[in-house]
User: What shape does this take?
Amino acid sequence: MMTPLFILEPLERPLTALLEWLHSSVGLTWAWAIVATTIIVRTILLPLTVRQIHSMQRLQAHAPEMKAIQQRYKNDRAKQQEELMKFYRENKINPASSCLPILFQIPVFLALFFVLKDFEKEVFPKYPGSELSWLWNLVPDITQPLSSDPLSAVVLLILYATSQTASTFFMSATMDKMQRYLLLALPLIFLFFVINFPAGLMIYWVTTNLWTTGQGLVTRTLRPKPGPPDKRTSRTPPGGDGKSRPEPEAQAVPPAPPRRVKKKKKRARR
Assistant: This one.
């Protein structure tokens, strides 16, 4: 199976073999085989996902300190980046680790696109009588573009927009507000492009979005809630942490000598 992106061919063969095994040995339909493939891929990427979650938690915990650095060097971008990188090293933060799962999913997504593109010609004839439909025939053919069937397009686009918005909401908690709003709006923009994707590819996309949403819910549940900030009072010593500090031992001060007061002499009366 040759594709324009021949570099993806090593991924296409295992994906095709996995789909055929899930269909022929496990007994899943082709659509549910895609769902199972998605779960298997996300399970393999789980170690990277754990690193992503830990990195996002560290970023969120140190967000005020990083914002202070940005404000301090807002007029010197080079110095700002230098101080931020130093801060990342000291606190063992790797901002790039939050993108690793996505970077590994993109080749799988593209490889599955080409697998489904030639699926009806190269794979489906090996299994006569098998079904290409999904969800009680609401999606009649997973190899065809969404635009070929209005009903399946509506069902999958609603699932896609909802799942994509939910996954973005949970996984962008540490981003800037403007960036977060942009990511939340992207699913609506992509609707005009994904309409030409094969329905099976949309099943993969929706499944991975639902996985990400569940992952975000579990992360929020297990993450310990930060305690309330320490209250400062008039007795709180300066330092900002609200903790009492040991006072230095008082040193013995020698008593001052008594002050001598000069008496004024009375002038004699004339």
Q: What stands out?
A: The first helix runs from residue 9 to 24.
